[in-house]
Specification:
Low-confidence stretches: 1-12, 645-654
Strand content: 15-25%
Mean pLDDT: 88
Structural class: alpha/beta
Number of helices: 53
Largest sheet: 6 strands, mixed
Distance between the termini: 43 Å
Number of strands: 41
Shape: globular
């Protein structure tokens, strides 16, 4: 055992100690050492967000143990920064502190895994360099996640650990989000799974999350140390890690005090140049100098008592009539609502009076809780009163119906509607916020029209408030009460619960009151419900008669927040917590037929009911669902855990229900390969992933004709996914992409030496009228990620081929194949390509025929059909989790989108650019469905699918125009279909009601034509232009104005635009889209513009990334804001939309070009000099002087004047007095174009870097334009593009480079600056790592910039991207591993920017990168000094 000496300190003369303080998100660690590094005092305490007092207590204890002592001290941890500023103590980056302790205590460590309260980290020690991975925008799998899970099992973290010791089975649970994990665990609890198995499954989930989410493609090898509180105290969690990582013997580095490492490292790093005394410190901490922070505050909930009393009076009116059970004579009806965390029962009279109600937490077993309540009811029922009918609803409906033989089962949404209608007959909107689910039900003409549930995230549900109240040792009631009169509620945003946790913690660290936090939480719960789940942009959309219910609305602060944010008055029944049960009771009363007897177990049978539960795996299909079998006395049994009917012991209900998912899967992959021994050219491996679900018949035929034996990877399964978990570079990619790694690994493990997995940039164009036929960026480029991240490809010399190809036409395809397989006779390849093309067409034809047959079958048999519309790969059962079988189980036929797309006629123009092949089908299928009476559509959407931010809104509009119901189901690696089942059953219930009301789809909304910007408007309109790069746009604004356009560019720093963006943009849209739309709407709503004389200007690239669709987002937002009359003008080189009032003339183009080049030059010279200026502010002053000159010059752009100005700028900055003695690390900033240049989006990263003592290097903006032009050369060579376009783009590049040459020469001749690199060189640099076929978004250009920066000596880089940016999964995050392998010193940190991302976390990661940068700088200076000697 490697340990640090722990000795009690002898009492002697005053000696100097070293101390380290680590303030984490949930605990404070304090360590004191003597001069020989022996620990004399150590402690670890939860601070319950009261940092100051907790620290004071620790210092007092140390003072008591050691007497008055003097010490040097360093502070660390996520909460340490503000305290270090206040006490004037040195701050050290956490990872540096931990590494220092590891080098001191256990230098043989290769990898340290540390789990903290809200962060999880993996630290890799590669020789001298340290690399750290840390959770970015999701805190699944951290300490607070463990606490959340433990409270579900009615225990604490230690209790969880005890349970886990005796486990017998492990269930698959998602740890990506505490919420998902809850939704996986809750059904298991409700089905009676053993606590020991649940506990170990929670730990297993954390291990999976840490390895797949954090390691992000960097395997954990060698000796591993486990650090941090959870891993120190929870032996079973550590055991799961050791087991999964396969660590044996010495590979586990055993260390004492592993939870104190950051504090120990801080103590070891302290220097004696600043000495503190214990007594002074105690005095300092007692005098309470509260730490301040800029937190946004919101309006108080109530102005005063009087305001509150009025509110209370109004809400006290919605009361149910209560009857007295003791004196009651007559029939009673029972409703049971077995919810996810609580059980509710209601007993009503035949007149609807409430005679008895029950509400209690499940304590892990809803069945036992309901039995207890039912026994109590039987014990108090008066003589002669009997339950005539009973109905159960909610989460545990199936189990309880079976166990207690309840008469009816009803889907919870219908029960809630029945109850709400009891209070407000005309109710048209119900919002129900429960423990961890949120439901919003809209009612149209007395029928449930749509149901929205929080599928992906339970941010802002009741259990979050409860967990929070608990962590502050308050009851929920008290916590809610203090909120009512809070003076300044804190704005906590509306994203992930754990981030709200971090934000709340941050606010507390800054000394916010509990009342402000509680009120802030109430606001954010509602913001989440309205903006995230329901995505309401305008509160008036909510309807006129609103009923709110669910236990959470007992909290008056939440109720008030709802009314304030929605600006509506709502009805909250006094029984809002038991509405489900009340509704179920109303249903059993309404469905009662006189003379009927209830089947529910009577008192005696209930007493004698015995329950046994056991576990088994279903062998029905490859899902191998884990089944829980509950046996009840009387031979009845209930099986749960299955995704379809097979596990229930019934045979498939009805085999004649068409399921085209099954048909397509079989038709796609049922090909017989040539036996390996007869294959003249050997074996080719093809992974069963992404685009293969579209093109496998093509590739199978092609290779078989060439004499290869085709080996397809096995069917997807959880096991296949886990095989590839180590090499996934980006945790926010979608599940269909992540599973690719496993398929590739399974081929390698099977000994396949040649794997073919092409990058298909363009699919077949099958829908006429579509704008383009791209594949999605992930489908196109994912093979590049495999190439750069799966180490085994290199280690085993696998021939992995992933050429970029276009399937635009047979000819283009055949030519490209002949080129790729140049070693095979050309005619043979062309023949094979021809046969392959024919087979692919045959497959598509078969799908279309089958679709037509099925539509006919549905009509003939009077059935309902559902088009489950998604992507081709959604037919993979591991990805759709058996959803089609769930639907056919109800006797409803399932069709795929490509089987009916050809029957639909898309009404154009669409609101979006219809440029992706798979999506064009979605629109066509929706256009077909909307006119059918017996066919509905459900859209599948993979969690993290960026493109669906565009498609979901569009598909909704297509269906809505005909009054059809739109349902979207989000799916990811979590297999629990609870929410999906509710949505599907609610859809069926709504269809049933519609049938009874004889609903017929008909056109309700006419398609509006686009508002055009006319020549007249040019004279009178102000054009609003979103900000992107202030240094460039300030000059460009002048260029526009000189050409007669009254353009106004939005401000550079504008945090408020993000909130407005969130309100008006689909929540899955990327961060730049939010910012662009937010800026524009903020300006329009400011009152500064005449709304009849204003237009919006936006650039469009026409590439395969979402950015081309920003124009659609803007138009949709304007429409939702009631401003659809405002024209949106598209500026694009390819002329995607025409506007008579907007023309780019030669002079105007020159002015714009010069503006961009001036901006680029300013970035080069200003960022290079400002950090070193002798006179503070002199660099900025010089910039402002020249900026005015440039603005004047672009009004009438002349080339010779441009040349003169450029030389002048370079000369002046070259002569600016600088302090030449300072050396600072250089940090490159690359990434998605808007986030890279826009200070609002990147939290002003340039200023941050300069403040932290670094020099920022930001590559030029003009390169993005030359990159877009240069791409045509590749498209012509490999993807069949026209030569004429290449000629044009080459000329344009030459022209731009000609202009730029002067700038390059001036910079080359200067003493201080470097000239820019031209685009061809960048391409050559990138090509080595990624193909130039990666052209979506920043594509290969981003990789090129990184390589160029590293080559020019800038080894520290920030790769900035919006959270879940699709192209960046491949060419940003996806290449970091390969770049580090090639350049040992490269120090790259990928930062995700998003409204929910915590700035503290971003700052921490940047600081870590900088600490490595300083270390590398010191070492290189030492080396240089040594070589000079």
């Amino acid at each position: 055992m490697e340990e640090i000496n722990s000795l009690p300190s002898p009492s002697r003369a005053l000696i100097f100690y070293k101390a380290g303080i680590d303030i984490g998100s949930t605990t404070i660690k304090f360590v004191v050492m003597d001069e020989n590094n022996n620990i004399c005092f150590k402690d670890y305490r939860r601070h319950l967000s009261n940092i100051q007092e907790t620290l004071l207590g620790l210092v007092k204890d140390a003072r008591e143990q050691l007497g008055e002592f003097k010490f040097s001290c360093v502070i660390t941890g996520s909460g340490g920064l503000s305290i270090s500023n206040w006490i004037g103590m040195e701050f050290i980056q956490e990872v540096v502190a931990v590494s220092t302790a590891i080098n001191h205590v256990a230098p043989r460590t290769d990898v340290a895994i540390e789990i903290g309260g809200e962060d999880a980290k993996i630290i890799y020690f590669d020789g001298g360099s340290i690399e750290q991975r840390m959770n970015g925008v999701c805190a699944g799998g951290t300490g607070s996640f463990i606490d959340q899970m433990a409270s579900l099992l009615q225990t604490d973290a230690e209790g969880l650990n005890e349970y886990a010791k005796t486990y017998s089975a492990i269930y698959p649970i998602a740890a990506r989000c505490g919420v998902f994990a809850k939704s996986d665990i809750q059904p298991l609890i409700n089905e009676g799974a053993a606590k020991s198995d649940l506990a170990v499954s929670i730990f297993q989930a954390i291990v999976n999350q840490t390895i797949s989410g954090l390691a992000c493609g960097k395997p954990i090898r060698g000796n591993v140390a486990f650090l941090g509180g959870p891993l120190h105290f929870l032996t079973e969690l550590k055991a799961r890690f050791i087991d999964v990582l396969g660590l044996e013997g010495d590979a586990v580095v055993e260390v004492e005090d592993s939870h104190l490492f950051a504090a120990m490292g801080s103590a070891l790093s302290s220097k004696d140049d600043k000495i503190f005394s214990a007594d002074e410190m105690i005095k300092e901490l007692t005098n309470g100098k509260h730490i301040t922070m800029e937190i946004n505050r919101l309006d108080p909930l109530f102005k005063d008592e009087q305001d509150y009393n009025k509110f209370k009076e109004r809400h006290d009116k919605a009361k149910v009539i209560k009857g007295d059970l003791e004196s009651y004579k007559g029939d009673v009806f029972l409703g049971i609502d077995a919810g996810s965390t609580t059980s509710k029962l209601a007993l009503i009279s035949d007149k609807g009076e409430l005679l008895y109600s029950f509400y209690a937490g499940n304590e892990g077993s809803p069945l036992k809780m309901v039995m207890t309540a039912l026994k109590h009811i039987y014990s108090i029922l008066p003589e002669g009163v009997t339950i005539k009918k009973s109905c159960v609803t909610g989460y545990g409906e199936a189990l309880i119906k079976e166990a207690l033989m309840v008469d009816l089962g009803e889907i919870e949404t219908v029960a809630h509607y029945k109850a709400a209608a009891f209070f407000e007959h005309d109710v048209d909107f119900i919002l129900d916020i429960g423990g961890q689910d949120m439901k919003c039900i809209r009612i149209k003409n007395g029928v449930i029209d749509s149901v929205l549930l929080n599928e992906a995230c339970s941010a802002g549900c009741g259990s979050f408030i409860e967990t929070f109240a608990k962590s502050l040792k308050l009851s929920v009631q008290d916590f809610a009460k203090v909120a009512l009169f809070a003076k300044g509620p804190i704005d906590l945003g509306s994203r992930c619960t754990v981030f709200m946790n971090s934000r709340v913690k941050q606010a507390q660290k800054e000394g916010a009151e509990v009342a402000d936090i509680s009120a802030g939480l109430a606001y954010s719960v509602i913001k989440n419900a309205l903006q995230k789940v329901i995505k309401v942009t305008d509160p008036t959309d909510l309807g006129k008669h609103i009923v709110v219910q669910g236990g959470t609305f007992y909290n008056e602060a939440v109720l008030r927040a709802f009314e304030k944010i929605s600006t509506r008055e709502a009805i909250r029944p006094d029984i809002s917590g038991i509405m489900g049960a009340f509704g179920a009771a109303v249903i059993s009363r309404d469905k009662y037929v006189a003379g009927e007897e209830s089947t529910i177990l009577n008192a005696e049978d209930l007493e004698n009911l015995e329950i046994q539960s056991s576990l088994t795996r279903c062998k029905g299909c490859s899902n191998n669902c884990l089944l829980t079998i509950n046996k009840f006395s009387g031979g009845r049994r209930f099986i749960s855990g299955n995704r379809c009917e097979r596990g229930l012991g019934k045979e498939k209900s009805d085999s004649c229900v068409p399921n085209l998912f099954q048909y397509k899967y079989d038709r796609l992959f049922d090909y017989e390969p040539i036996p390996e021994n007869e294959a003249k050219r050997g074996v080719v491996g093809i992974p069963r992933v992404l685009n293969m679900y579209e093109d496998f018949p093509l590739w199978f035929t092609f290779f078989t004709k060439l004499g290869y034996s085709v080996k397809l990877s096995p069917k997807s399964s959880r096991k296949v996914y886990e095989m590839g978990i180590e090499s996934i570079p980006s945790e926010s990619a979608c599940y269909p992409a992540k599973i690719v790694h496993g398929h590739i690994m399974s081929l390698i493990n099977d000994g396949v030496k040649f794997i073919f997995y092409p990058c298909v940039a363009y699919e077949h164009k099958e829908i006429s009228g579509a704008d383009n036929h791209y594949n999605c960026p992930i489908v196109t480029s994912y093979p590049e990620n495999i190439k750069n991240n799966v180490e085994e490809i290199r280690d085993y010399n696998i021939d992995f081929r992933n050429p970029f190809i276009a399937l635009s036409s047979e000819e283009i395809f055949a030519d490209r194949m002949a080129e790729i397989f140049g070693d095979i006779p050309k005619n043979e390849v062309k023949e094979a390509a021809k046969a392959a093309w024919r087979e692919e067409q045959r497959f598509r034809e078969d799908m279309r025929k089958k679709g037509e047959e099925t539509v006919k079958y549905i009509k003939e048999n009077n059935m309902t059909g559902i088009v489950v519309a998604g992507r081709p790969y959604h037919i993979d059962p591991e990805i759709n989790h058996g959803l089609p079988e769930l639907i056919t189980g109800y006797g409803v036929a399932v069709l795929t989108e490509d089987s009916v797309a050809h029957l639909g006629n898309v009404e154009r123009p669409l609101n979006v650019r219809d440029q992706w092949a798979y999506h064009s089908r979605l629109y066509a299928a929706a256009s077909f469905v909307r006119e059918q009476e017996d066919i509905e559509l459900i859209q599948l959407n993979s969690f993290g699918c960026g493109l669906d931010a565009v498609t979901t809104d569009e598909v909704h509009d297509i269906l809505d125009a005909y009054g059809k119901i739109y349902t979207v189901l989000k799916i990811d690696e979590v297999s629990n279909l609870g929410a999906a089942r509710i949505r599907i059953r609610s859809l069926f219930a709504a269809l049933e009601e519609r049938r009874n009301k004889k609903f017929k789809p008909k056109k309700l909304v006419e398609k509006e034509s686009r508002v055009v910007f006319t020549k007249e408007m040019k004279k009178t309109h102000t054009l609003l232009m979103p900000q992107m790069s202030p240094i460039h746009f300030d000059i460009a604004q002048e260029a526009f104005r000189a050409s007669g356009y009254n353009v106004e560019v939005m401000p550079a720093i504008d945090k408020d635009c993000i909130d407005i963006g969130l309100k008006y943009v689909n929540n899955d849209a990327c961060y730049p889209a939010l910012i662009v739309v937010g800026q524009i709407l903020r300006a329009l709503q400011s009152g500064n513009y005449d709304l009849d004389k204003v237009s919006v200007l936006i650039s469009q690239t026409g590439g395969g990334c979402r950015a081309t669709n920003y124009i659609g987002f803007i138009r949709r937002a304007l429409k939702n804001a009631g401003l659809e009359h405002i024209p949106v003008v598209s500026v694009s080189a390819s002329g995607l939309e025409k506007n008579p009032g907007f023309k780019i003339t030669y002079k105007f183009a020159m002015a714009l070009l010069q503006s961009v080049l001036y901006g680029d030059l300013f970035m080069r010279v200003l960022y290079k000099t400002r950090p070193y200026e002798k006179v503070k502010g002199s660099a900025n002053a010089l910039y402002h002087k020249w900026n005015e000159v440039c603005k004047k010059a672009v009004r009438s752009p002349k080339k010779n004047e441009f040349n003169k100005i450029v030389r002048g700028i370079v000369k002046d900055f070259d002569e600016l007095p600088l302090d030449e003695t300072i050396v600072k690390p250089k940090v490159g900033v690359v990434g998605e174009i808007l986030v890279k240049f826009h200070p609002t989006a990147n939290n002003d990263v340039v200023t941050l870097l300069e403040k932290e003592g670094a020099e920022a290097v930001v590559p030029d903006l003009i390169n993005f334009f030359t990159y877009s032009l240069y791409n045509n050369k590749y498209k012509e060579e490999y993807l069949g593009a026209k030569h004429s376009i290449t000629v044009l783009t080459n000329w344009a590049i030459k022209f731009i480079e000609g202009y730029r040459r002067v700038m390059g020469d001036a910079l080359k001749d200067s003493k201080r600056f470097d000239p820019p690199t031209d685009i061809k060189e960048l391409g050559a640099m990138a090509e080595d790592i990624v193909s130039l076929g990666n052209q979506t978004g920043e594509g290969w250009f981003l990789t090129g910039e990184l390589v160029e920066l590293i080559h020019s000596g800038v080894t520290n880089n920030i790769c900035a991207q919006p959270f879940a940016c699709l192209p960046n999964h491949v060419t940003g995050k996806g290449v970091i591993k390969e770049l580090k392998r090639r350049n040992k010193n490269s120090n790259i940190v990928a930062i995700d920017y998003d409204p929910g991302a915590s700035e503290v976390n971003q700052l921490n990661r940047i600081k870590l990168m900088l600490s490595t940068a300083y270390k590398n700088l010191e070492e290189s200076q030492k080396e240089a000094a040594a070589s000079n000697k």
